[in-house]
Design goal:
Layout: E1 3-9, H1 17-25, E2 33-37, H2 48-56, E3 62-65, H3 75-87, E4 91-94, E5 99-100, H4 104-137, H5 150-161, H6 166-173, H7 177-184
Parallel strand pairs: 1-2, 1-3, 3-4
Antiparallel strand pairs: 4-5
Length: 186
């Protein structure tokens, strides 16, 4: 019966050190801890390190995480993973909640918490979309910076009106043919 741990952070600015410390304190050997930097919104099957760990686990093993959201923020995805592990005889422990999915009570509590994790993700998404809408309303240009400034776009349109091709306009403006074409036809 092996003890394994999974620690995840979303960005390279974050570190898994605290999670690893908590996992080792709970008896998970350092060699059994897998760390990964990837968004919690990413499905577990699309997380290379977690996928390798799941393949390595055998009946009787346990997978420990510090918090439920380390496994993911999508309730269906987390529950699918836990169900797969349970069918293979592998339990999941969530330290901050004191949950062990090997029992019926742990499974029920986990269903509730997974729903809350998805709810939290949806709230964050709504806030981000609201922020983007506010920025648009204020006239903030979103997305990638344009390849050409407004005056160069106007010049590209004038050159098109004079009969120049996208390739010729691109050479004059020192941009690719496609960038010139987009500017000429915007």
């Amino acid at each position: 019966m092996g003890r394994y741990g999974y620690a995840r952070v979303s960005t390279t600015r974050q570190q898994t050190d605290n999670q690893v410390t908590d996992l080792t304190r709970e008896g998970v050997p350092e060699g059994g801890i897998v760390t990964e930097t990837i968004s919690g919104a990413t499905a577990w099957k699309s997380r290379p390190e977690l996928r390798k760990l799941v393949r390595r686990l055998q009946a009787g093993d346990s997978l420990t995480v510090v918090k439920l959201d380390r496994l993911g923020r999508n309730a269906l995805d987390v529950l699918t993973l836990i169900d797969l592990l349970k069918k293979r005889g592998i339990s999941v422990r969530i330290l901050n909640l004191g949950i062990d999915t090997s029992g019926a009570g742990g499974r029920l509590f986990l269903l509730l918490l997974a729903g809350f994790a998805e709810f939290e993700r949806n709230i964050i998404r709504e806030r981000v979309l609201s922020g983007l809408e506010t920025a648009k309303a204020k006239g903030t240009r979103l997305g990638r910076k344009p390849a050409l400034p407004d005056d160069a776009i106007a010049q590209a349109r004038r050159l098109k009106a004079q009969g120049l091709s996208a390739r010729e306009v691109g050479k004059l403006l020192h941009v690719s043919k496609m960038t010139a074409w987009r500017a000429m036809n915007s």
